[in-house]
Amino acid sequence: MSFQFSVFSFQFSVLTSLRAAPFSFQFSVFVLSFLIFIQSCGKHPEIPITISRLEKSLFAIPVDSIEAHVSKLQQQYGTLLDKMSLELGIQMPDHDEYAEDLARFITYPDMVVTFQKVMAVFPDLKDIESGFGRAFFNYEKEFPDRTIPELYTLISGFNSKWIVTDEYMAIALDHYLGSDEDIYGMLMLPNYERRLRDKKYIVPQSVNAWLTTEFPFNDSINTVLNNILYHGKLMYAMHQLLPCTPDSILFGFTPAQMRWCGNNSTQMWTHLVENRLLFASDQFTINKFVGPAPFTSTFTRESPGRAAVWLGYKIVASYMKREKVSLQELMLTEDYQQILQKAKFRP
Q1: Cα torsion for 212, 216, 221, 222, to the nearest 10°?
Q2: CA distance readout (Å), 219 to 170, 193, 282
Q3: Whole-angstrom distance, CA of residue 317 vs CA of residue 306
Q4: Cα 182 to the chain's mean position, in Å?
Q5: Contact, 169 vs 147, CB < 8 A?
Q6: Where are the domains of the chain?
């Protein structure tokens, strides 16, 4: 309540200053718009989301009674227990040696430390549940015929970030312990990857991962253009589902890298066109533009990796502004040449 009161008080003072000081009109309007934006984001509707924590269930089991708990775990987590076991490289739950393998996993010193770190960073998941609640509220509006996944967390032993099926998504929290986590240094992760291991990236990265399974890329025509526009579609959808999340978080760019993209869109597009890269179809070239990297090697070292994805997003946004189609229609569109033509993109 105190925050809302201060916002309204500030808005009133801004309106008063508009009458008293006309020369400050533009600045005051900017401040007022910003405050209204902050306020509207704070009230963004959401649906209730509860995330089930497989890692807590596992590490709470007394070692001497694991075998007795296996059936309970299977009832509670179903096929997720199978898929987690595959990730960890241990026997499947119906195997005679499963309880022994699982005991080794939850008592292995490195995994015990990892679990302790996970619990220190994530004592609860209220903020993350709220973030997913806002995203899936919008998802239900945009895609009313599609189901919302059940959400779980686990520890994958630093293997996959997600386990995704048609029914659920499980997020490996050991991938989000913070950019300064020593474990990531020991795993020799490069700095540009470590920067994205913060919990603020969980919701946008996970929503993106879910969208890629719901709307997979059709690689029958696998070119640079089709890839940057496909990822541009994903980023456009992300903006609709998470409208209050900063672009730097959605794209995973630093503020400086975001400014570079904004200042160099013409140069990026010109480079792609003049060097006939848009229709390149070899995977090595495609990965240069859409794969994770510290920077885009064909641009400058100040550019972010995947800078062309930002360009793809701008093209898709131009297309959507002109065509007025629904988000569902956009995501089902695979004629990327048509998107480019109708976007009439001018960087």
Answers
A1: 30
A2: 26, 26, 12
A3: 17
A4: 23
A5: no
A6: 51-213, 217-343
Which pTM does this prediction carry? 0.87
CA distances from 119 to 54, 97, 107, 340 (A): 12, 28, 16, 46
Whether the Cβ atoms of residue 177 and residue 117 lie closer than 8 Å to each other:
yes
Residue 19: exposed, middle, or buried by beta-carbon count in 10 A (0-12, 13-18, 19+)?
Answer: exposed
Query: Scanning the structure block, which residue is given the tokens 């969980």?
Result: 202
Task: Judge contact between 61 and 69, C-beta under 8 A.
Answer: yes
The closest alpha carbon to 122, from 194, 158, 175, belongs to 175
Candidates 174, 152, 172, 155; CA nearest to 78 is 152
Q: Point out which residues pair with 162 in neighbouring strands.
A: 171
Sequence length of the chain is 347
Q: Which stretch of DSSP H or E encloses residue 272?
A: helix 265-274
310 contacts 317 by C-beta, under 8 angstroms: no
Q: Tokens standing for 93? A: 């739950």
Helices 109-121 and 98-107 pack at an angle, to 10 degrees, of: 60
> Are 338 and 316 contacting, i.e. CB atoms less than 8 angstroms apart?
no
Please name the helix (run of DSSP H) or strand (run of DSSP E) that holds residue 151, with its range, or none: strand 150-154
Per-residue pLDDT tens listing for the chain (347 residues)? 333 333 333 333 433 333 444 444 444 444 444 444 444 566 689 999 999 999 999 999 999 899 999 999 999 999 999 999 999 999 999 999 999 999 999 999 999 999 999 999 999 999 999 999 999 999 999 999 999 999 999 999 999 999 999 999 999 999 999 999 999 999 999 999 999 999 999 999 999 999 999 999 987 889 999 999 999 999 999 999 999 999 999 999 999 999 999 999 999 999 999 999 999 999 999 999 999 999 999 999 999 999 999 999 999 999 999 998 999 999 999 999 999 999 999 98
In the 8-state DSSP scheme, what is residue 61? S
